[in-house]
Give the backbone structure.
Amino acid sequence: MRGAYDVAHSFVHDHDAAEDIVQDAFVRAYTSLRTFRGEAQFGTWLYRIVVNISLNRLKTERRKAEREIPILGASAIVATEEDPGHAAGLQEHLERALHELPTLQRAVVILRHLDGMSTREVSVILQCSEGTVKTHLFRGMEKMRKRLEYLKGEEI
Amino acid sequence: MREHAQYRLLLYDYIMDELQNEQRAQVEQHVRRCRECAESLERLRETCQTLERRAVRPSRLRSEGYWEDFAARVEGRLPEPERRRLHLPRAFITSVGSLLQMRPRIAIGTGVAVAAAVLGLLLLRPATTIDVEPEQEARTAGRPTFEENSERLSSYLRQSRTLLVGLTNTDPPAERQIDLEPERLASRRLLKESRYLRLQPLDARSANLVTDVERIMIELASAQGTGTAPNLSLIQDGIRERNLLFKIRMAEQAYSSSRFVYASDRR
């Protein structure tokens, strides 16, 4: 469940929200086990539930933020500051750069690069083609690099 | 141009050494003559290295106690009918949870084994017809005597204990198939008995114990003839979590000193 927690946290950037997502995912997985058709492997199916809940939550929060806070990105910065034990420097920059990626690019970078899944597995989890996964990964990594360079320059 | 875009998307796989030899050679050849891709490759490599340094995983910021209690917290969120089933939810969460503690690539590979075990327990249950009609027996037999029920309950507990001790002590190597057929047949017999006993006016503690044991028997009766270690371990977890062997021994001691009573006799 720690792997699922890490994935959820990478999306929502908040410990309470990550816990809520993983608990929700396990409840859904258990109560809907009968609908598991074996088309995907079991671990992939469970991760898909975690990712779907995370993405839905982000969508809801984004809508809420658009209504309440006109400045985009403000919630991301607040969330970073709330993280317990969060060290400044590179770690914080990485988290921030990751958090500022568009949702699907972030999902692909998290699953493919940080969690080491194959392109095929990520495509099953996100329900898109392998080509789309590769495109999101390339663009996501490029944006990460640019953002990290910017944040590094800002520090100096 | 199209060719260039395609190669660009292979750069990550190239860095991670996940390409077949032929594709790898093609990427190398392309990068040698395409400056843009050569630069992209270098930048991507640097970004990957930087991201590797993201060493602190969020889950490590939680205490060990937090993870130990995790399954119980999830179980608390389950709807009541699900929660009452043998503590299987907790066994399920713990099994799948420890699976996901591994790197997902490994976890997904081994996920099939756990999925098969859990699905074996859950999916087969509705399809399994347990061919007994204890209700009918209990209704038509007239009210049995105190001695008859005492005897049946004692016998039921003794047989259940023998079966559960055997299951608890089974420790097969992971992934090796074990034959659960004899246990399954025994559990079906005991299930018939427990259904009869539950219809008798037992005291609360006896009724609870019979219900607890019955849940294990249902899982066992519904399990496949052969099972893997994870399959068996779910049942073992259920026995341990309910502390069933201890409860049965305590009940046997109590009943041997005639403390088994009809609920109606207490009034």
